[in-house]
Amino acid sequence: MCDSKMPVHEIRTIRAKTTVYLGARAITKMDAIMADLSGRGIGKVLCVTGRGSYRSTGAWDHVRAAFDRYGVDHVLYDRITPNPTVDSVDEAVEMGRDFGAQAVVAIGGGSPIDAAKSAAILLQYPDRDARDLYELRFVPDRAVPVVAVNLTHGTGTEADRFAVVSLPEKDYKPAIAYDCIYPAYAIDDPALMTGLSADQTRFVSIDALNHVIEAATSKAASPYTVLLARETARLVAAYLPQALAHPGDLTARYHLLYASLIAGIAFDNGLLHFTHALEHPLSASGPIWPTAWACP
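Above: the chain's sequence. Below: its structure in token form.
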């Protein structure tokens, strides 16, 4: 089926380590997700978000309604900033521990999702904090379930095992990679991304493209990562101009979002190298450049 014939309003389920719901109105799958979590005895969740996009996109209305319908109580930490710090993660974890959170729901781009993954680990390790986690003082093998409601088409973190958080005193942004933080579920809904500005649209799409350039050229590259890289590059080249010219075009957003997703899967398999090694210390001290890593 050619791209133009893809039914973007039909929600598809993509199964990797994470079950991803992709398509316009995929946010409505929050009901099925909450039904599953509540059926497993999860009745309290910590929500981790940025300061505004979780509301302005309309995602929060759907998430909160699903909580109410399935009797899931929540506490909201909405202070995640671009390049979140270990201190922000610790604040979120303290809130979650006091509440008795049994799962974490992230709403946002890479920063909230990565912070949420970190919190999910620390909720299982009450004697540890975020500095312990990011200075590799222990190796976690468990985390509470994570649900990622993705609001950008760039990072791919909604379906991978990576998280990145800054250590402000060291001006460094280390990464962790653990199987226990693959989100259980992810929502990839292009309708939540039509409000991205032209610059944000460019930056997040370039982020996805950079991921596959690295994943296809690393020492861990494979035919699989090269295949995903080629398709990501093709989709970004075809649909980024369309999204910039017509920000509300769901077809363009859908294919950029799919490109971002498979780019995340590519670097989950092929890993990364020089670009990220350079970027992490540069951006750890603040949003120096308007890059995708500084998305809300």
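Residues 3-294 form a domain with the Rossmann fold fold (CATH 3.40.50.1970).
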